[in-house]
Amino acid sequence: MDERRLAVYRAAIHPSLAVAIPFLFLVLLDRLLRVLVLDLVLAPNPPGTILVLLLTGGAQAAVANTLAREKVGGGLPRLRELLVILILAAAVFMTTRGYLFAGDIVPTKPEVIYALALVLVMWLTCFSLHRAFREREVFLSTITGIDGTELRTAVRSYSTEATESVARMRQVKRVVIWFQLLVLLAFSAALLGGRDVSGGLLLLVVLHLALGLAYTAALNGYQEEQGYFGGGFVLPVSLRRRRVGAALLFVALAAVLVWPTVRAEPPLPASYLETFFSWLNDLLTPDGPREVRRQAMSLSSSRAQESEQTREFAHMIGERPGSDLAARLFQALLATVLVALGGVLAVFLVRPLFSRDFGEILRTLSVGRLLRGLAAGLSQALDAALQVVRRLAAAGAGAAAPGGAS
Questions:
Q1: Contact 17, 85 (CB under 8 A)
Q2: To which H or E segment does residue 50 belong?
Q3: How many CA atoms lie within 13 A of 29 on its CB side?
Q4: Is residue 119 a contact partner of residue 57, using CB atoms and an 8 Å limit?
Q5: FRET partner for 52 with CA separation of 20 to 30 A, picked from 98, 151, 172, 316?
Q6: Among the residues of 70-198, which ranges form H helices?
Q7: Are 52 and 118 in contact (CB under 8 A)?
Q8: pTM for the model
């Protein structure tokens, strides 16, 4: 393990995995849930939802790397980041849906709240996965530039970091497996329910399965590589590439074999599901369906009587002289509380802009420095991409050499 390879892990591989794993899962699960039930009760997602989800994951990874590089800890910066992302996402969703142009600035629309929930889940999942990969980076930083007996001794000396790294990789693998199971469960429900599954949705399911197997193969390689470190050996990079390629090849062969069996009509009629759930309802209801319906009707009638009495009581209270004054006082108190909470939130969000550190950054900031930093970042990314291409070409040439010799 050298410093260059560790830098590639920190800057590209680990953040990309932390973003890619939940991104495709959320996009695909949203599509499947809409095919099943959400399209019947919820308006379509605001335009740009997928792009906002991707930008949310990228922003989380960039901020996490920046805070780690500056050695900034604590939960307040991350909470501030999450609030800013949610506020900007709500503004984007309200704009793309046209509510802001109509003068409606309250983001309480069901489709907007649902899209914000997707953004929140995306950020939390990316944060958890990136934090898990960060533990692996901590362990790798303790064994950079050494091998043999020295490497074996370092792994034993940093056994706590090694154990935590393995535990976090297992945690990430469990997340990947659960994502695969949830997607397959929703997809099976759509097929059994006779829903119209488009070719694009089927392609997304196959892609999610292929990437899930590739992620699992890569994570297994990480764990085995750490076992090799304990023995003083460095796992060859070509071995990990062959494993990931084998996983993708397995998915491709499975798709070729299964594709002829896919048909437009569902494998089971919808009446089978209706009969099954009716039987399940009768089985779980000890009093029988007729008595249950009779009890439900009596319960609904009693609730209707209670609601009527409540309305009469409220009407009686509303006729009292002091009720209007009490309502106005309550509204004023509620408005005061909301304004106070909004002020506290605004101060919490903009407070870092008035800190001494931010002032020093502004004093040393210049356009030339920004351009030089951007050029250096692009150069590093290009060098990393070229290095990956060279390794792939070398691996392909090495694999083709025995065939040519024979």
A1: no
A2: helix 49-69
A3: 17
A4: no
A5: 172
A6: 76-96, 110-141, 148-157, 159-192
A7: no
A8: 0.65
Torsion angle of alpha carbons 361, 364, 370, 376, nearest 10°? -90
d(CA 27, CA 38): 14
DSSP secondary structure string for all residues of 8-45:
HIIIIIHHHHHHHHHHHHHHHHHHHHIIIIIHHHSPPP
Contact (CB, 8 A) for 267 and 192: yes
Give first-to-last CA distance, the chain, whole Å.
35
Q: 132 with 165: CB under 8 angstroms?
A: no
Task: Tell me how far apart the alpha carbons of residues 402 and 385 are, in angstroms, rounded to a whole number.
Answer: 27
The pair of three-digit structure tokens given for residue 309, joined into one six-digit string: 């009495």
Measure the CA–CA gap between 375 and 370, rounded to whole angstroms. 9
Does the CA dihedral 298-301-306-309 come out positive or negative? negative
Query: Among the ranges 124-133, 146-155, 278-287, 372-381, which has the highest mean pLDDT value?
Result: 124-133
Cα gap 201→59, rounded to integer Å = 27
**What pLDDT digit, counting tens, does each position of 289-310 carry?**
545 455 555 555 656 565 665 5
Residue 214 Cα distances to 171, 282, 389, angstroms: 16, 44, 19
Cα–Cα distance measured from residue 179 to residue 209, given in angstroms and rounded to the nearest whole number: 10
Least confident of 38-47, 122-131, 209-218, 251-260: 251-260
Query: Which tokens hold the place of 351?
Result: 């407070």
Distance separating alpha carbons of residues 284 and 81, to the nearest angstrom: 47
pLDDT for position 213 = 85
Q: How far apart are CA 108 and CA 225, in angstroms?
A: 49
